C-alpha cells in the first residue's frame, strides 16, 4: 500500500465508509423473514438419543469440565437392571445449561466421548427473565422418533456399549418395549436425533417451576 501523507490519513481511514455511503442498503426483515444461518452455526444444544431410544449421555461430566464459562452442570447416576437410560454404566440424571453464561464456543461438544451433545442451528433463545435461560435435560433432550422406545428399557438383545458406540444399532427390537408413535404423549417436539447442520433442534417445552435449577 503506498504511503499516504499524514494530513490525508483521516480521509484514507474513512475511505471504506465513503465508498459504501451511496450503495443500496440491505436490510433483513427479521423476525418476519428469517435468513438461514451458516451450516456450522453454534446454536442451542441438544442431547441425542440412539436409534432405539436410549440416551447417548453417560453422565461423565467431561462437557462440564471443558466449559470455559462454567455454564454446564451434570449429575450422573448408575443404570440398573430395572431402569436403564443409556448403554453405559451411567447416565445423565440431571443436566443443565445456563445460557446466561454460555459463550457458544462448542468445546463441550468436542469433549463429549459419545457425541451425546451437539449444537443445533436454533438461535432464538432470548427470554425476559434469568430463570428461563437455564435449560434442563427435559428442554435439551432430542425428541423421540417413530419406532424408538422411551427410556428406561433394556439394551438391544445381544448388544453391548461398543455396539452402540460403533453405530450398529439402527432401531428398536420388540423385546425392548412398545415403540413410540408420533402424536403420543411423551415425545418432545422437534426434528430428530442429530440436528445436523442446517436443521433445527428440539423446540423448548413450556417452562416449569424453577425450583432445583442451578444458578
How is this structure best described in words?
By secondary structure, the protein is mostly loops. It has a domain at 49-191: 2-Layer Sandwich (Alpha-Beta Plaits), CATH 3.30.70. The protein is built from six helices and five strands. The strands form two sheets. The chain has a three-stranded antiparallel sheet with strand order 2-3-5. Strands 1-4 form a two-stranded antiparallel sheet. The N and C termini lie far apart (52 Å). The relative contact order is 0.19.
In brief:
The protein has 215 residues and is largely without helices or strands.
What percent strand?
5-15%
Uncertain stretches: 189-203, 205-215
Structural class: little secondary structure
Which sequence of SSEs, written as H and E, runs from N to C? HHEHEEHEEHH
Strand order of the largest sheet: 2-3-5
The CATH architecture of the domain at 49-191 can be given as: 2-Layer Sandwich
* Extended strand count: 5
Helix content: 10-25%
If you consult CATH, what is the topology of the domain at 49-191? Answer: Alpha-Beta Plaits
| Biggest beta sheet attributes | 3 strands, antiparallel
CATH class call of the domain at 49-191: Alpha Beta
Output mean pLDDT.
85
How would the global form be characterised?
elongated
Q: First CA to last CA: what distance?
A: 52 Å
Number of helices: 6
Q: What Rg, in angstroms, do the CA atoms define? A: 23 Å
Amino acid at each position: 500500500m503506498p504511503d499516504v501523507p499524514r494530513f490525508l490519513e483521516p480521509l484514507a481511514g474513512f475511505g471504506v465508509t465513503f465508498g459504501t455511503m451511496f450503495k443500496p442498503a440491505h436490510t433483513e426483515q427479521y423476525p418476519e423473514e428469517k435468513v438461514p444461518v451458516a451450516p456450522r452455526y453454534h446454536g442451542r444444544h441438544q442431547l441425542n438419543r440412539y436409534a432405539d431410544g436410549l440416551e447417548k449421555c453417560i453422565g461423565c461430566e467431561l462437557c462440564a469440565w471443558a466449559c470455559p464459562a462454567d455454564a454446564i452442570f451434570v449429575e450422573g447416576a448408575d443404570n440398573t437392571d430395572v431402569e436403564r437410560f443409556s448403554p453405559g454404566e451411567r447416565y445423565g440424571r440431571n443436566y443443565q445449561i445456563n445460557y446466561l453464561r454460555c459463550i457458544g464456543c462448542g468445546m463441550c461438544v468436542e469433549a463429549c466421548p459419545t457425541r451425546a451433545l451437539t449444537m443445533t442451528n436454533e438461535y432464538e433463545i432470548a427470554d425476559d427473565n434469568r430463570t428461563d435461560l437455564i435449560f434442563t435435560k427435559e428442554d435439551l433432550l432430542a425428541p423421540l422418533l417413530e419406532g424408538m422406545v422411551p427410556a428406561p428399557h433394556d439394551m438391544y438383545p445381544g448388544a453391548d456399549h461398543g455396539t452402540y458406540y460403533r453405530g450398529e444399532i439402527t432401531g428398536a427390537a420388540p423385546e425392548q418395549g412398545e415403540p413410540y408413535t408420533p402424536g403420543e404423549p411423551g415425545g418432545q417436539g422437534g426434528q430428530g436425533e442429530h440436528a445436523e447442520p442446517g436443521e433445527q433442534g428440539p423446540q423448548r417445552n413450556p417452562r416449569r417451576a424453577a425450583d432445583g435449577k442451578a444458578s
